[in-house]
Amino acid sequence: MSHPPFRIIDTGLRTGRENIAFDQAMIDAHRCGEIPDTIRFIHFKPVALLGRHQALSQEIHKTECAARGIEIGRRITGGGAIYLDQGQLGWALVMRRKSLNLGDLGNTAMMICEAAAAGLSTLGIEANYRPRNDIEVGGRKISGTGGFFDGDTVIYQGTVLVDLDPKTMFAALNVAKAKVERKNLDSAADRVTCLRALLGDQTPDMDTLEQALVSGFTERLGLAAKWGEVTEAEERRAQTLYTEEIGTDDFVAEIDDPAREAGVLMGSHTGMGGTVNAFVRLEGARNERLREVLITGDFFVTPPRIIYDLEASLRRVPVKNIDAHITAFFDTANAGMLSAAPADFASAIHTAVK
Question: What share of the chain is helix, strand, coil (3-state, %, to 5)?
Fold first, then answer.
């Protein structure tokens, strides 16, 4: 049985917070049956975007961003902090989980990244999927991606580095030393490349790049797609979300700098699924119970609210029961994780407690 064609839209140049609000508006509208499965292309004014579970002060150079006129925003997807401007093209697929039957989050990431890589390769480069969620050329990242499931709706999105201003990028972002060392690189700039560096004067314009990505998605994923229009309902939803939540400073600073608070212990664990940070307060005569746990990092967990449920469930759990509790939580939570594992969260908490 064939599925209706995906709608293709380009939502034009917007601020980072406006774009994230539109992401959430699309998810909400799709869950309500107001819009069809959609491929969206996204253009950004200068912005440093946090991952959903990251701590603001630890990931972003706030003073530098203010001096350079760079907005700070927070995504609704996990992963690490990124810098975006008019030199990047964002893309997103919002669709029913059953539309393409891609399976769990790990397989969904692989299939969509391989499709995007195939499209990029038509431009004269050799792009390949690199687990867990990157697209690379010659070992250097040209696109980062991420997504999650929300009920029967999937959002999976990425950005293509068309042109790159590394000085501004790394002035805005606090690239963790551990991440650079983990990849055996001398500097964070060595991790990335862009179409301009690879193709020079043959760098395609945005329209050509969009068509290349569409061809990759249609041919590799077996979907049909045609250009459509943004609906008024989507714009209304996006404006409400921007005004009431995603566009506010409170949303961006929801997780700021927990390590500065009195009595907070901090531990970190880095594995295949990314870095997990745990900020812990203890209670009891011998500090034998968890009083409060805050979890941050660049991992991907779906749905994102699972982390808040995990934090709540850990209150008053004896330290000696951390491993068993977290294992039991994920056994019943119906969560999806991209390379991360329950043991990664337990390890971060144990490091804090020790």
Answer: 40, 30, 30
Using CA atoms, how far apart are residues 40 and 6, in angstroms rounded to an integer? 10
Q: For residue 130, how many other CB atoms are within 10 A of its CB?
A: 17
- For 146, half-sphere exposure in the C-beta direction (CA atoms, 13 angstrom radius) is 24
**CA separation for the pair 30, 349 (Å, rounded):** 37
Write down the pTM of the prediction: 0.92
DSSP assignment, residue 263? T
Residues 60-99 pLDDT 10s: 999 999 999 999 999 999 999 999 999 999 999 999 999 9
State pLDDT tens for residues 10-57: 999 999 999 999 999 999 999 999 999 999 999 999 999 999 999 999
Options 2.70.50.60, 3.30.930.10, 3.30.70.1050, 3.20.20.60; which CATH number does 6-252 get? Answer: 3.30.930.10
Q: Which CATH architecture has domain 258-353?
A: 2-Layer Sandwich (3.30)
Can you tell me which residue has the tokens 């551990």? 178
Instruction: Give the span between the Cα atoms of 302 and 61, in whole angstroms.
Output: 28
